[in-house]
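Priority: medium. Attachment 1 of 2:
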């Protein structure tokens, strides 16, 4: 009688079906994206340094986990295979030596003695032998009743061991050796079994794999620590790499910000030949070209400003003489002495009107050059706004055409002359293009969100005309703007509204233009009640900035209709 070949015979083994709870079952759990997970998923990492560190960390973590997992799996299979092969081979030899020598119908004592002798080996496993008595009853002999009985053998393994394998007649390996790894109370075990051919007893072994499991746990901890160290090292390397990459980018950002602030001489120090160095060179070339272009534009603008200023100053002397002559002619016309030929009277009146218009244009051009050169100054004083508006209207004989809605006692710290210029331009423009009555309302509004502390003076000038075309609204404050190219000439100089908005800006305020839902255009002047952040200048050049008011009785707005 010969024992069956062992399953460890390198390719001849057959595994029994594993039962639930066996080590071969893998438990896969999905990720629970609860409220915290959804919140974290909604975060967006805007820091490039953080993103680089995370990418490096993920790559290192993936590589370390993959390497550790492969190493653990290979070591696990090697350790378990070596242990089970040694145990099964030893069990096969012991079964051949002791169980095969038993009589065909052994007693329980004989089976127990044989099982004890088999268990007394270097592999330290428990054995149970099953035989059949002469009466046909099953007889079991255990090496240790407390650790291993037939009930501990999985049903699938018992069925596999007891099944005769199909083969050639007289095949000595009609019964094979089967094995299975199980877990009991957290302890892994190797259970194997085989039947002696020719009707001999059936033997089962049970070997604890706790020592191997402890070794594998130690290996897993070692691999985990190595993975953690690798991740920390990768994070440090990523931080260093990010610093190397981001330092030039940070310098480039600072240089670009300075360039945006107008410091066109800003340049980057370039070292190396990599892409970042090439980017720095490109920035330097761009900054140099931009500085050259801006310098050229500034030179042209300065030349143009000097030309306008010089021309305005040069025209003032002949205009003074011409104005004196036209005033004499106007007095002669008003006196009706007959000294002026009636045939040339229309021409004389035309010359008088054009002289006034030219004089106003020259004064406006000089005012514009002051704003462009940044030499315009405020002479602040505390005035009653209602009295200021009344004086402006009365000086231009607009009392019958203007409705004033302003309470007395609203005091503001402004430049009276410049406020008069603003009001004259806005009201005159409304009368010329919108017609009377023009309504002027004064209110004091608290600061809105985002504005500096302090109330603001709000003056609205509304006419009852057709309003301003939508395509014209963005340009009403542009210099010399004409709403229609077919109407290049108007009674005004085309600078009135531009000068008005510049005077508002120097006060720290602004002027807005819109169309009223009830019809007509509405110009809204907003000024700080305390004069804004501008300090009063008592040493203003009155010889250059104290000339005639740029506003004429007809207003100086552009052709807005």
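Attachment 2 of 2:
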């Amino acid at each position: 009688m010969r024992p069956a070949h062992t399953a460890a015979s390198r390719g001849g083994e057959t595994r029994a079906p594993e039962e639930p709870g066996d080590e071969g079952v893998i438990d896969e759990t999905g990720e629970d994206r609860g409220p915290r997970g959804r919140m974290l998923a909604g975060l967006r990492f805007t820091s490039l340094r953080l993103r680089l560190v995370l990418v490096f960390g993920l790559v290192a973590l993936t590589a370390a986990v993959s390497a550790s997992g492969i190493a653990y799996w290979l070591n696990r299979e090697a350790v378990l295979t070596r242990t089970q092969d040694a145990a099964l081979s030893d069990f096969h030899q012991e079964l051949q030596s002791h169980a095969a020598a038993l009589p065909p119908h052994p007693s329980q004592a004989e089976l127990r003695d044989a099982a004890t002798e088999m268990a007394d080996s270097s592999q330290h496993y428990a054995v149970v032998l099953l035989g059949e008595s002469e009466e046909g009853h099953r007889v079991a002999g255990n090496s240790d009743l407390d650790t291993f009985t037939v009930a501990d053998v999985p049903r699938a393994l018992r069925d596999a061991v007891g099944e005769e394998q199909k083969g050639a007649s007289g095949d000595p390996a009609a019964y094979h050796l089967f094995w299975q790894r199980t877990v009991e109370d957290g302890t892994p075990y190797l259970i194997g079994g085989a039947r002696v051919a020719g009707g001999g007893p059936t033997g089962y072994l049970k070997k604890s794999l706790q020592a191997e499991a402890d070794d594998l746990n130690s290996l897993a901890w070692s691999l985990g620590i190595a993975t953690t160290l690798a991740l920390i090292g990768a994070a440090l390397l990523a931080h260093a790499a990010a610093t190397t990459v981001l330092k030039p980018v940070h310098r480039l950002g600072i240089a670009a910000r300075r360039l945006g602030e107008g410091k066109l001489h800003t340049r980057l120090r370039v070292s190396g030949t990599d892409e970042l160095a090439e980017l720095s060179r490109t920035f330097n070339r761009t900054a140099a070209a931009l500085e050259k272009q801006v310098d050229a534009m500034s030179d042209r603008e300065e030349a143009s400003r000097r030309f306008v200023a010089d021309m305005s100053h040069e025209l003032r002397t002949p205009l003074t003489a011409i104005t004196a002559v036209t005033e004499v002619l106007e007095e002669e016309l008003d006196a009706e002495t007959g000294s002026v030929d009636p045939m040339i009277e229309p021409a004389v009146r035309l010359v008088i009107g054009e002289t006034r218009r030219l004089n106003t244009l020259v004064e406006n051009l000089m005012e514009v050059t002051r704003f462009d050169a940044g030499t315009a100054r405020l002479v602040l004083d505390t005035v009653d706004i209602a009295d200021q508006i009344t004086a402006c209207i009365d000086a231009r004989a607009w009392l019958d055409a203007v409705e004033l809605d302003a309470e007395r006692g609203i005091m503001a710290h402004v430049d009276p002359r410049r406020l008069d210029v603003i009001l004259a331009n806005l009201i005159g423009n409304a009368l010329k293009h919108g017609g009377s009555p023009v309504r002027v309302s004064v209110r004091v509004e608290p600061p809105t969100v985002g504005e500096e502390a302090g109330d603001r003076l709000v003056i609205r000038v509304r006419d009852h005309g057709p309003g301003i075309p939508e395509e014209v609204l963005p340009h009403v404050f542009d210099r010399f703007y004409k709403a229609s190219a077919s109407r290049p000439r108007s009674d005004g100089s085309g600078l009135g509204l531009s000068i008005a908005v510049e005077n508002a800006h120097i006060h720290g305020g602004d002027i807005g233009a819109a169309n009223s839902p009830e019809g007509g255009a509405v110009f809204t002047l907003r000024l700080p009640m305390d004069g804004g952040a501008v300090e009063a200048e008592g040493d203003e050049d009155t010889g250059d900035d104290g000339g005639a008011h740029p506003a004429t009785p007809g207003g100086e707005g552009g052709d807005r209709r």
